[in-house]
Protein 1
Amino acid sequence: MNAVEAILRALTVILCAIGAFYFFIGTVGMLRLPDFYSRTHAATKCDTVGAGSILLGLMLMQGFGAITLKLIALTALLLLSSPTAGHALARAAFRTGLKPWRSPEHTEGEDAT
Amino acid sequence: MKRALTVALLVVVAIPLLYAVAQLPQHGSPMTPPYTHISPRYLEKGPEEAGAENIVTDVILNYRGFDTNGEVTVIFTSLAAVCAVLLGSRKGDERPAGEPSSSAVPVSDVVSFVVRLLSPLIAIFAVYVMLFGHISPGGGFQSGAILAALVIVTTVIVGRKQAEALVPVRIRRLLQVAAPLTFFVVGVSGLFLFGDYLAYPKTEGQMWLATAWLIVIGIGIGVGGAAVLASIFWTMGDDS
Amino acid sequence: MSRAFDITLLLLLIACALAVIQTKDLLGAVVIFSTYSLIMCLIWQHRGAPDVAMTEAAVGAGVTSALFLVAISKTVRKEK
C-alpha cells in the first residue's frame, strides 16, 4: 500500500515536472521563435502537453473519485479546445495573407521578400 | 472679496465633512457592525431563513433583494439604451438582406465541428448554473454570461442571419426585459401574499416557496442577460 | 505560500493594467485586457469567491473581448 502510494506520488511529481518543463519551453518559444506560425505552435504545445500532463499527474494523485472525473472532463475539454484555437489562429493568419517565415539562406535564391 | 468668500464657504463646508469622516468607523476594523452582527447572522441563519444554501444567493436576492432589484433595473435599462443607440446608428446604411457572412476568412470545418460538439455541453452547464444557483456557486448573472458567450460563438460559426432568425425580434424584446420583469412579478406577488413588496415567506413550511422564487429570479436574470448581451453583439456585428 | 501566490497575481495584474494603457495596437490591448480578466478571475477564486470568478471569466474574458473585437473590426485598429 505504502509502496504503491509512493510510486503514485513519484509519478505525479514527474508528470508535473514534465508539464512545467513544457510550459517553460512554450514560453521560451513564444519569445524566441521568428514568426506568428511557429509562436502559435509553441503556445499550443504549452496548453496540450504541458497542462495535459499536469492534469494527468493530478489525476494520479487523487485516485478514483469525483475529482478525477472532473479532471478527465477538463483534460478532454483542453485537448479539444486548445488545438482548435491554434488551428483557427494559424488559418486566419494564412487566409489573410501572412507569409510563413523562411530562413535567410533559403530566400536568397528565390524572390527575396 | 469673491475669492475670500469662496474660501470661507469651502472651509465651512469642509469642517463638517471632515468631522463626519472622523466619526466613521475605521475601514476594515472588526468592530464595525457588518462584522459584529450582520455577517455571523447571514452565515448562521442564511440557509434556513432565506431559502438557499448558497449564502451569496441569499444575500443578493433575499436579504438585499431591493438593492439587486434596483441594480438589475438600472443595468438592463442601460443595456437597452446601448442596443437602441447601436440600432439607431445602423438605420442609415441598410444592407441587402440574406447576404452571407462577408468576413475575409470563411469558417473552418475544424472550428465548426468542435463548436458544434461543445455547444450542447456549454448549454447544459449554463442551465445548471442557472437552476442550481441556490445550492452551488453561480446564479442568474453567471449563467446569462455563459449563455451569451455560447450564442456569440454559435453566431460566429453559423453566421449572424441564421443565428438571429432563431430568436425573432418581437420575442427578443420580451426576453430583454425578462430580468426586471421577473423581479417585478415576484415582488408584486410578495405584496399580495405577504403584505410587502419583495417579501419572502418566512415560516418553516413555506421555505420551498422562497427557494422557488429565488430560482425564478435566477432564470429571469439569466435569460434576460443572455438576450441583452447577444442582441448587443448581433446589433454591433452587422457586417462581420 | 498562499500569500506569495496572491502577491504574484496582484503584481501580474498591475503589469497587465499598465500594458493595456501602454499598448498602441488596440487588438493587442484587448488580448492583454482579457488576460487581466483571467488573472482577476484567479484572484477571486483564490480569495474564495467562485461566483464572482465565474462571472469574471465569462463576462470579462469572454463576452467583453468579443464585443471589443467587433467594435475594433468596425472602426480602426491603431490608436491615433
Protein 2
Amino acid sequence: MQVDWNTFWPRIFEATGETLTMVLFTLLFSSVFGIALGLLLYVTREGNILENKVLFNILNVFINIIRPIPFIILLVALSPVTRVVVGTTIGTWAAIFPMTIAASFGIARIVENNLVSIDPGIIEAAKAMGASPVSIIFTVLIPEALGPLILGLTFISVALIDFSAMAGTVGGGGLGDLAMTYGYQRFDNSVMFVTVLLLIVLTQIAQFIGNYLARIFLRR
Amino acid sequence: MIEFREVSKVFHTSKQNEVKAVNDVSLSVNEGEIFGVIGLSGAGKSTLLRLVNLLESPTYGEVLVNDKSISTLSPKELRQMRQKIGMIFQNFNLFNSRTVFGNVAYPLKIAKVPKQEIKKRVNELLSFVGLADKADQYPEQLSGGQKQRVGIARALATSPDILICDEATSALDPETTGEILNLLKKVNREFNVTILLITHEMNVIRTICNRVAVMENGEVIEEGSVYDIFTNPQERTTQKFISSVLNDHISSNLFKQLQASKKGRLYRVIFMGDATNQPVLSNIAKDYNVSVNIINGNISELQEALFGNLVVELQGNDNEIDQVVEELQKQVQVKEVTDHAG
C-alpha cells in the first residue's frame, strides 16, 4: 500500500517538530543536571577542591548503575516515575523525562572527563589567588573546559536523536516513530528513506553547530 | 615577614609508608629581602613554599606570615591572606580561556575590585612588565618569557607584600631567565615586595638573592647570606651547587698531570673584601723568589662585592713556598689543594 504524499508531508513536518522538541528540551534539562552532576563528581574526588569520599563514591556508583542500562529498558522501567513527574506515559513530554535521565548521567561522565584534563596547576593558581571553591567552579573549571564540553554535548545531541527514535515506541512521536510505523510495519521503504534522510540531516546540522561553537571557545 | 617554626610536613603515600617532605625546618624571611631556597628535586623545597599560603598545611610546627599563624585562620581569612601573597609558577599556570588582560584581572575580580579600577590597574601592570601591547592575546600565543611576565603581573595585581616563586625560571632559556630575574629584582625594589623563591639553579641565587637556605632530604642544611655561603660553604651539597656556577674546581686529569710534573705546589686562594682590590699575587712574586702560575679561577661579583677564587701553582723551593703561604694567609684564605675536588 502506497501513502498519499500530499497528506503525508504535513505528518513528516509534524514528526520533525516532535523530534526537535524532544532533542532540544532533553539537551537543555540534561545539560543542567549533567553538568551539575559532573562538576560535583569532579570536585568531590580525592585531592580536589571539595573532597568528599562518601559523596563521590555514591555518585560514582549510581552513575555506573544507570549508564549501562539500554535506553529502551530504562524507558519502560522508568514509566511509573514518568507518570508521577509528567502526569502521563504517552507523548512527547513523557519521552523527554526518561531521555533526560539517561542523558544526564552520560553528560556527567563527559563533564568529569573533560575536567580531569584541566592542568591542576591552573586550579592551584586560582586557589593561591584566594578564589573560593564556588568561584573556582564557575570562573576556572567551566571556562577552561568549555571547548571540549561543547563537543561532548554535541556527541550527546546526536545520541539523543537516536534515543528519540526509540522514544517513539512509547508514543513519543517523532521521526523515528514515523519510520517505524509507516516504514517498517507497513513495508513502505520510501517513507523510511525520507525519515532516515531527515535524521541524517538533523545529525549533520547538530554536529556542524557543535563544531562551530567548540572552535570559537577553543580558538583553533 | 615569613617565619617557619619547627615545621614538618608528612605525606602518607600508602597506609604504612610516609614521606617527610619537610623535616623540622625553622627559617625566617625578613621584610624587603629576596630569600632563595635551593635544593635538588625531591629536597622538599616546593612543599616548603606551599606551606606559606597553605596550599599545603603543616603536619607539625607553625608558619607565621606577618606575625600571624596561618593555620588558625578561618577559610575566609585565609582567602584574604592569599590575596596578599602573590605566587608564580614554573609552568606559569595561566588561564588558557582568558586573554592576557583577563588573566591579570582575575585576582582583582576575586577581590571584588570595581571594574573601572581593574582596567586601570591591569593596564598599569601590563606596562610595568612590558606587555601593554599583548593585552588581547591568549596565553597560547605568547613565548615562555612573556607567559611568565603575565604570571608576574597577575601575582602583583592585588599589591601583595609577599611574592613566592616556585621554580619561576626553570622552564626558561638562560637569556629569558636573566630578563625575568631582572624583573623580579625590579618588583622587589620598586614595590618593596618580599620575595621567597625556590630553585635548583645556583645562578638564580647568585643573581638576585640576599640570603639563601640549602635544602636536602627535607631539611635545611645550611643557611646564610649569599656572600657568606658562596665564599665559605660548609656542606658538600652546597659546595656542589656553587661549583655549578663558579667552575672553581680543576678536573682530576689536570690535577694528576700537575702533580706528576712536580713543578710546584697547588693552592686555592680565596679573595674577599679589600683583598680583591690589592695586587696580592704580584707583590708576592716581586718579594719572593717564587713564581705564581694561575691554573684556574674566576673573580665574580656577589651582592655588589667582589669575590675571587683561584687555584694557583707556586713554583720555587719548599722553604720559600712555605714563607709565601704564611705571608698570603695574612691577607687572603689559602688552602693547599690535595685532590681535584679540594
Protein 3
Amino acid sequence: MDFESNELLRFSTAGSVDDGKSTLIGRLLYDSKSIFEDQYESVKTTSEKRGEEGVNLALLTDGLKAEREQGITIDVAYRYFSTPKRKFIIADTPGHIQYTRNMVTGASTANVALILIDARKGILEQTRRHAFISSLLQIPHLIICINKMDLVEYKEEVYNQIKEEFSAFSYKLDVKDVHFIPISALNGDNVVDPSEKMPWYQGGTLLYALENVHIGSDHNLIDCRFPVQYVIRPYTDEFHDYRGYAGRVAGGIYKKGDKVMLLPSGFTSKIAKIDTFDGEVEEAYSPMSVTLLLEDDYDLSRGDMIVRENNQPEVTQDIEVMVCWFSERPLQLRGKYSILHTTQDARCIIKDIRYKLDINTLHRNEEDKVIRMNDIARIQLRSTKPLFVDSYRRNRNTGSLIFVDEGTNETVGAGMII
Amino acid sequence: MSYHLNHLKELEAESIFILREVAAQFENPVLMFSGGKDSILMTHLAMKAFYPAKIPFPLLHIDTGHNFDETISYRDYLVDKIGARLIIGSVQEAIDQGLVVEEKGYNASRNYLQTTALLEALEKGKYDAALGGARRDEEKARAKERFFSHRDEFGQWDPKNQRPELWNLFNGKKQFGEHFRVFPISNWTELDVWQYLAVEEVELPSLYFAHKRKVFVRDGIHLAESPFIMRRPEEELVEMMVRCRTIGDVTCTGVWPSEATTIEDIIVEVSTARKTERGGRADDKRSETAMEDRKKKGYF
C-alpha cells in the first residue's frame, strides 16, 4: 500500500490572535481536507452565535470551554493532517499566556518551527522570542512565513527587508536551516498553491517546504545510546532464560554482534539479538522501540545504559543546564528537586544560578537571579547519583531533563544540558 | 540503507515506549478495553511491547449491559487468545447498588453512568494507571490531553492545570490515592489506525465492516435497532448496509451507511470521509462541551 512510505513530521507554531496563525493552520487543514464537515458546521454555528464575521477557524483548535469563552488559547493543542507524502503533527502554542512554558513544550519534539511575521509590523518581540526558543530547543529547521503580503501590495521590498532584519538578529542564534516564504494565509498565496501575485518569489510554497524539508538526519545516528527502560522476563517454559532489555534507541545504530559497554558497571558484552514482536531485526536506530539481548548474563535494570566502549556519554553528578522555569514558585537556590533524565529518576540540589537570560535581548543578567515562571537561566546542579549525559546540542534525548517538585509532584522546569 | 521509519512505525515505536513506561512507573496499571478498534489497537501494541512475555496488566471492560452482541463475543475471543486477565466493571451492578440512577425516555443512555462504574472499578482494583485508547484528533477536548494525564483522588481532570510534557520524559509521580490516565495512541488519527490495522492484519469485530442491519434515523444519526432503545412512533425501521466507525454503548453509537466490506475499502472510505467518526456519537452531541464536561468528572 502506498501510504507505507509516508514520513512523520512534527512542527510547532506560535503566535498571537492577530498575526494570522489560526487562519494559516485553518487553511492548511482545510486545503488538505483535514477539516470535517461536522467540525466546520459546528465552528460556523458557534461563530454566528457570537456574532462574529465569517467563520472563526481558531475555534477548531481552542477546544476547552474556558478558551472559547475568553477567546484565547490556554494550552498546547495538537492538530493532525496529512498529504500523500507526509503525516504532520502540529503543536500549536499560544503566544501570550505562559508563552515560554507552552512554546518550549511544543518545541521539544518538533522537527520544524513555523514562525509567522506580520508583513506590516515586521520583527516583533514575540518573533525574537519564538526564534530564540526554537534555537535553544534545537529545532533543526525554521520556516519563516512573512504573512499578510496582501496588505503590503505583495511588495518584494517588504519581504527582503524583513528577511534581512531577521537574519541580522538570527546570526546570534544557533539555527542551521532557515527558509523564508512570503504568504497570504487569508487568500492562500504560497500556502498550498503558488501565488500569482508574487512572480518575484521563486521558492516553493509552505506546503512544499513542509513536505520536502530533509528530516532524515534529524536523529542522532552516531552516538550509540540505549537507556534500559524495562526488563522483559517471561518466566515461561519456552522462554525460560530470556532476559530482554526493552527500550527506545536514543542515538546511534545498534547491530547484532556489536561489542557494547554497560553503564554504570563498565562491563562489556556483545549484542546477541535485537528482538521485536515481529521477529529479530539486524539493526536498531533512533527512534525505534526494541528489545536487546546480551551474550553475557549481567543483571541490568531500568536506568542503566548500553553504549559503545569507544563512544561513551559523560558519567557525572555535576551538570550545567539551561533551565526554563514553569512554576509559580521561583527556582530555589540550594533547593532539592526530583529529576527525570532518560529512564533515570534521581534527586538533585541546585548548586548555583549563573545568570538569567533575557530572551528578548539575549542579555545575561548576573544581578537578578530570581528565576520565576517563564524565565530561562543557566544553573549548575548536583545529582544524587551519576547520570549518563550528552550535551543537548549533540543529542536531544540524552541531553534533556525535567525537574519535578517533591511536594506537589508537578513538572516545574525543563533543562537542556550544556 | 535509509535509517528512517515510516509514519506508522514511528507511531508504533512511540506507543510502545509509553506502554513500557507505564509498566515501569506504575505498580498496578490496567488497560481500559471497550471492544472498539482503538482498544483493539492498544491491546495489539501492548502485546508487541512486552513480547515474548504476556501483557503485564489486566484488561478492564466497563460493561453498560447495552452492547452489540458482536462486541462481547469478540472481547471474549481476544482475551482467550492472548491469555489476558479480564476484569468487568458493571453499570448494571452500579444501578442495582443504587450508586447511579438509570436515565429514562427516548434518549436514555448508560454512557454517563459509565464514569461512576469506571471510577468504582479503578478504586476497587486499586489501579494507579488506567490506559485508554483516546486520540487527540477525535474531539476538541481530547486535543488538549496529555499522554500521562493526572487525576486527583476524585478522578477529576483539570485541563487548565496540566503538567507540561517535554521530549520523551513522562512524569508519573503522584500522591497516594491519585491515579493517572495514560493515552499511548494520542498522536494517531483515525486513518493511521486503519492503515496500521491493515498492515498488521489485525482481526476485527464484524461490526466495523458493512453488513445488513435494521436501523432508524434520529437527529440525523442512524441508530441500530436494539431492545435497549425506545423508538418514537415516527421512527421507522429500515434495513440497509451499514457499519460502525466507533463502537460504544449501543444506545449512543451511530452506524453509517457504507459498502465497505474489507479493511482496504474502509481506508478509502475514511480518507475521503467528510464527517468525523464521533459525528455519530449521540453522547458528544448533548452540548458543545459534552466531552470536556464528562472528562472533568472522570470519563476517559
Protein 4
Amino acid sequence: MATKLGKQTYQPDNPPFIISTGTVAGPFEGQGPLKDYFDHVYTDTLAGERSFENAEKEMMANACFTCLQKVNVTPQEVDFYLAGDLLNQIISAGFCALELNIPFLGIYGACSTSAEGLALAAMLVDGGFAKLVLASTSSHNSSAERQYRYPTEYGVHRKPTAQWTVTGAGAALVAGYGAGPRITTFTVGKVVDQGIKDPMNLGAAMAPAAAATMVQHFADTGRGPEYYDLIVTGDLGKFGRELAVITCASKGGFDLSKNYNDCGLMIYDTEKQDVHAGASGCASSALVVYGYLYRKMLAGELKKILLVATGALHSVTSFQQGASIPAIAHAVSIEME
Amino acid sequence: MSRDPKKKPLTVEQKRYTELVSELVPKPQYGKNALLAFLFGGLVCVIGQLFTDIYRLAFGMSSTEAGNPAVATMILVGSLLTGLGLFDKIARYAGAGLVVPVTGFANSVVASALEFKREGLVFGVGSKMFMLAGSVITFGVVTAFIIGLIYAIFIL
Amino acid sequence: MEWQTYLLAFIIGGAICVVAQLILDFTNLSPGHVLSGLVVAGGVLGGLGLYDKLVQLAGAGATMPISSFGNALVKGAIMEAEKNGVIGVLTGMFELTSTGITAAIIFGFLTAVVFNPKG
C-alpha cells in the first residue's frame, strides 16, 4: 500500500519498476535531435494504413508490442492495459486494446495521459491489484489537426504561439518486480482554469496547471527542484515553459531555471524544424520520457527525474461556445537506484 | 452571475495571469505578414487579370464576361495546389494573400472534401465540403437578400 | 491589356489582402470570421454601387478577392428584382455567382476523388 504525503501526493511502499518501454515516432519526429532514442521511426505519416486514425492506432500497437517484446512478456501475462489519446472517444486506445487483448481501462487526460497512466499503473501494482500493467498513449499530427483545428490541407497562418502535435506513440510496462527506474511518488493534479481562451496558445493555458502541481508536489514531499536531476513538463512549448518558471517562482518561491526543461522543446530542433512554439500532443512527453530519458536513466546518466505531464481539457465545442481552456498536470517522480 | 461562459467575468487572478501572458507572448510579425499578404495577394490578382485578358482576347468576350472563366480558372489552380499539398505550405507564408482571393475559397472547399474522403463520398466529401466555405456563402446570401429586399421594396 | 490595369490589380488586390491579414493578426478572429466579414463588406459596397467602381478601376484586383462574391450575390439579386420584384431577389441570387460555386464543387469533388490528404 501507499503512504499519502501532504494533500495530493502518494508514495508507494514498494515503488513499482518501469521494466520496459516502447516508442515509435513519425517521420518528422525522426528528423529531430532525439531520433536515435526511438525504437522505430516511420517513413510515412500514414504508416502504411488507409487513414491517419488507423495510422495512429498502428503506431500505438507497435509501441505496445515493442515494449512487451523487449522483456519477453506476452500480452496474456499483463493484468491491465491503461491507454488514452486525443481522438474523440479515445479510439486509438480502444482499437489498440482490441489487438492487445489485455483487460483494458481507457483513460483521458489529453496530453497529460502519459503521467496519468504511470500514476494509475503504480497504484494498481503497489495496491496489489496487478503484477504487470501496460500504459500507453499516442498522438498524430494529422488526426489531431483535423479534429481540433482545420483540415490538414487548409491554408492558414500559424501564430507564433501555435504548437506542433507530435506523431508517435509510447508505452511503458510497470511491474511490481524486476529492475529499472522506479516510480517513487506521484502527485495527482487538480484542474486549473486561468482564463486563457486561445486554442493556438495551449502552453499558456497549461502552464498554471503545471506550476500548481509542481508547487504542490514540492510542498507535499518536502523536496525542492534541486532534488531532481531533471524536471520535465509535457508540452508547454517555449512560452508555456517561461510562464511555468514565472508562476512557480511567484506561487511557491521555487527556482526552476537550473534543471527544468519541456519535452515540447526537446523533441524537435526548434531552430531548423518549423514548429513555432514547440511540440504538443500526448506523444510529446511519452516519446521524450519513455524514449530519451528512460535510456539516460538506464545508462546511469540521470538518477532522479520528475515528469509533469500537462493536458488541455477543452474540446472544439467548448471553445466555440466561448469557454476558456481548463488544464491539468500530473507529476510522477522516477528514480533509478 | 451569468452562466454563459462567454460572459463569465475573469477573477482577479485570471486577469493578472492573462495580462502576464499577453506581455510575454510575442506579437505576430505585423509588418512582415502584411507585406507578404500584399505581395502574394497582388500577385494572385495579377494572374487573375492575366486570365481575364486572355479569355477576353481569345474569345472576344467583354471584361465582365471574361471574369467568370477567369474566376473558374483560379479556382482550378487553387484546387490543384491543395490536392498536391502545396497550398498550405505557400499559405504559411502568404497568409491572407492566398486565402482572401478566390483561390482561398477553393482551398477551403477542396481541403475539407479531401480531409473527409475516408468517411466516404456521401458523409465525407459530400457533406463536409462546405464545412469552412459554408459560412462565406451563408453570410453572403443573407447580406444580398437583405440588400435585395430593401432595393425591391423601397427603391424600385 | 495595359500595364496600368495590372499595376492597379496588384495594388488594390494586395491591399484587400493586407486588410484581412491585419484583422487576423490584431484580433483573435479566425479566417472564417474574416472571410465572412469581407463577403458582407463586398455585398454592402455592391448594394451602394461602389464595388463596381472598384472593379472598373482595378479589374481582377477587385474580382479575385472573396469580397467580390458578396458583390456578385447582391448584383444578381438586384438585377432580377428590377424585373420581378421581391421574387427576383430569390431567383437572381446565384445568377452571377454560379460559376464560382459550381467550379468549386466540381473541382473540389474531382480533387477529392483523385488526391489524398498529404497531412
